[in-house]
């Protein structure tokens, strides 16, 4: 951990950054053409787009448990409990914001009617995030309290910062989404590359919030997973690499989903991933600097 970034060797960090930059360069010239080729809106893709980020959100209650176990070991049990609750709440809050409407619709909720289904969806989301806390409480090693606190703080702080930076950049760019462009008689008439920004045109209009990808901001949180595996009672370098490979595959699959479902361009997903990864890496290094 001392010589790595987010629980992995620096070469892994460099690899992710290079892949993102290559994707940005390619997308800068071929964004529109790539979407034309990959466009394939379907029910399976829609399901994954709506609920796939559940695995990323599980990191919030896991981070809360890291903070609770670490602070409890240092004699700050109440502070740890408060942060555990915050981590648990963030998972529920973000899930409800990003995909809660899909779940409520699935349960049969209609605005202004069947309020019970709205409450049921919220309770269901709350139940789904209990297991990460239970599992982490069992498998985490609290012999190094400072390490657990650093892991939990990195995930919570970086997650919040990344989300808000992304929301701000969406307004600054106000880039039209591909799914909006293809509804026009001439899609290319309003197409803009990521650097052709029209600040604050988007407002509340989601059709102009293509760059950078917000969903990729969430998906890229998975790169924090090796920090958790590195905090296990039975940790190993092999488990860290497995976690990193899983994160890479998850991010790549989700990036493809955002493109083929016409929500984003290649440069959108690469920027969303890169921005989040860099923020997590910077904050992680800051919290772990004491160990060096």
Main beta-sheet strand count, sense and barrel state: 2 strands, antiparallel
Radius of gyration: 20 Å
Q: Based on CA inertia axes, which overall geometry fits?
A: globular
Q: What's the number of helices?
A: 14
Binned strand content: under 5%
Percent helix range = 55-70%
DSSP E strands, number: 2
Strand order of the largest sheet: 1-2
Mean pLDDT: 94
CA-CA gap between termini: 9 Å
- Poorly predicted runs are none
Structural class: mainly alpha
Order of secondary-structure elements: EEHHHHHHHHHHHHHH
Question: Explain this structure to me?
Answer:
The protein has 292 residues and is mostly helical. The protein has a domain at 4-57 and 142-291. It has helices at 10-38, 43-51, 54-57, 59-73, 77-98, 100-107, 115-128, 131-139, 145-173, 178-181, 214-219, 225-229, 237-260, 266-288; strands at residues 4-5, 8-9. Strands 1-2 form a two-stranded antiparallel ribbon. α13 (237-260) packs antiparallel against α14 (266-288).
Name some characteristics of this structure:
292 residues; mainly alpha
In summary, what is this structure?
This protein has 14 helices and two strands.
Topology:
Elements: E1 4-5, E2 8-9, H1 10-38, H2 43-51, H3 54-57, H4 59-73, H5 77-98, H6 100-107, H7 115-128, H8 131-139, H9 145-173, H10 178-181, H11 214-219, H12 225-229, H13 237-260, H14 266-288
Antiparallel strand pairs: 1-2
Helix pairs in contact: 1-13, 1-14, 2-13, 4-5, 4-8, 4-9, 6-7, 9-14, 13-14
């Amino acid at each position: 951990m001392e010589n790595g970034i987010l629980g992995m060797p620096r070469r892994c960090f460099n690899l992710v950054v290079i892949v993102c930059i290559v994707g940005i360069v390619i997308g800068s010239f071929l964004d529109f053409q790539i979407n034309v080729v990959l466009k394939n809106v379907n029910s399976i893709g829609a399901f994954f787009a709506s609920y796939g980020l559940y695995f990323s959100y599980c990191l919030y209650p896991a981070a809360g448990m890291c903070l609770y176990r670490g602070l409890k070991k240092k004699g700050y049990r109440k502070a740890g409990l408060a942060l555990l609750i915050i981590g648990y709440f963030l998972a529920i809050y973000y899930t409800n914001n990003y995909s809660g409407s899909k779940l409520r619709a699935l349960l049969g909720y209609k605005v202004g009617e069947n309020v019970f289904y709205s409450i049921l969806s919220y309770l269901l989301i709350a139940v789904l995030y209990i297991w990460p806390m239970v599992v982490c409480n069992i498998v985490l090693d609290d012999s190094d309290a400072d390490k657990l606190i650093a892991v939990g703080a990195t995930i919570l702080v970086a997650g919040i910062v990344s989300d808000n930076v992304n929301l701000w950049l969406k307004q600054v760019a106000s880039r039209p989404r591909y799914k909006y462009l293809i509804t026009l008689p001439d899609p290319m008439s309003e197409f803009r590359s990521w650097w052709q920004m029209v600040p604050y045109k988007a407002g509340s209009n989601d059709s102009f919030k293509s760059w950078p990808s917000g969903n990729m901001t969430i998906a890229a949180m998975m790169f924090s997973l090796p920090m958790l595996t590195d905090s296990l009672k039975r940790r190993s370098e092999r488990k860290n690499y497995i976690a990193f490979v899983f994160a890479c595959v998850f991010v790549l699959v989700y990036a493809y989903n955002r493109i083929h479902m016409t929500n984003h361009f290649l440069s959108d997903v690469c920027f969303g991933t890169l921005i989040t990864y860099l923020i997590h890496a910077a904050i992680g290094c800051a919290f772990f600097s004491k160990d060096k």
